[in-house]
Amino acid sequence: MPPRKKRRPASGDDLSAKKSRHDSMYRKYDSTRIKTEEEAFSSKRCLEWFYEYAGTDDVVGPEGMEKFCEDIGVEPENVVMLVLAWKLDAQNMGYFTLQEWLKGMTSLQCDTTEKLRNTLDYLRSLLNDSTNFKLIYRYAFDFARQSKYKVINKDQWCNVLEFSRTINLDLSNYDEDGAWPVLLDEFVEWYKDKQMS
């Protein structure tokens, strides 16, 4: 039996097959592109989001901050707000300036409430890293201090962190002749007196 001749596709057949493949690839690309545009960070969207809380000012103040916290589902005193303030490099507690907002939210790639809500676990996780924790702890000293009057200096503030990490809860390994500041010596003395009474 002679070998069968292969039918050569007509030029129209070939074009329609190519066009069909091309169309399906374009649809895949197009749907990916649309999704990516929605997910991509937008400075314009971030700016509009800022003014939802700032009103006509260039700063989100206490009232705007209250609404902001409510929208992202976090109490204002929650530690994650301190971490967020640190990421935004905010200079004053209860306030985010336009510049702080844009710089910080750009670094977090958040331009909507939903994106920030999805980032909260990441912000909380930063506290589990000892290097970040130390940086956030040090940042909190200047951030939480609302006047230039110091009740505790920065050196003492940092020593409190070291104390909390190295001294046992029962203070059994506290060396009174160590290089701890007087503030902590006084605390230990007060604590031991309290335990005896």
UniProtKB/TrEMBL annotation:
GO terms for biological process: protein neddylation. InterPro entries: DCN-prot, EF-hand-dom_pair, PONY_dom. Gene3D superfamilies: EF-hand. GO terms for cellular component: ubiquitin ligase complex. Residues 41-197 form the DCUN1 domain. Transmembrane segments: none annotated. GO terms for molecular function: cullin family protein binding; ubiquitin conjugating enzyme binding; ubiquitin-like protein binding. PANTHER family: DCN1-LIKE PROTEIN 4, RP42 RELATED. This is DCN1-like protein. It comes from Rousettus aegyptiacus.
